[in-house]
Amino acid sequence: MTPTLIGRWQTRLLLLATIGSLITLLVGRSYDDLSGSFILLCYVLIIGLAADVLYQFIQSFRWDEDWPMSFQLLAGLAEGVFLWGLISLVRWEEFGFLGMPGVGFISFSHFFNHYAAVWFAIFLVTQGPLRVIFPRWRFFGGRWL
Fold it and tell me: Is residue 17 within a helix (H) or strand (E), and if so which, with residue range?
């Protein structure tokens, strides 16, 4: 399946809203930071939607216009590094805190465990069960509607 931009966006929204939210609930409770964890999930969504535009552009230069699994791994890694960079480097000193608005500064272990768990779960679902349970998704460029 070669996803369209709308298909990428719809799939990202659906999976982060369902699977991502469940994992965020578990991780947020384990770190006693439920609101910060859900705000972090929103940042993952925003950065991912913007990155999908870039991925679609890069994909158009490939001879088969495909997005192989290794690219998905690299894209997930790049998004995670970029988000961690924002969290750790953005300083809002005039407001009296460090880190991203709404998240503050979280530990690397909190970020890594949360991001890796959400990313890995969504990756596994898109590679297997989603293709079997929703064959229409697979054959319509990732679009749901």
Answer: none
100: phi then psi, degrees, rounded to nearest 5: -75, 145
Q: What is the pLDDT of residues 63-104, one digit of tens each?
A: 766 667 788 889 999 999 999 888 877 655 555 555 566 676
Bridge partners of 97? 92
* β-pair partners for 114: none
Fill in the DSSP letter of residue 2.
-
Distance CA 132, CA 55 (A): 25
Where in the chain are the domains?
5-139
Closest CA to 49 of 5, 101, 17, 102: 5
Closest CA to 65 of 52, 50, 55, 51: 55
Cα separation, 40 vs 76, whole angstroms: 15
Contact present, 5 and 141 (Cβ < 8 Å): no
Supply 120's token pair: 């890995």
Write down the residue that tokens 């079997």 correspond to.
132
pTM for the predicted model, two decimal places: 0.82
The tens digit of pLDDT for each residue in 27-66 reads 999 988 888 889 899 999 999 999 989 888 888 777 766 6
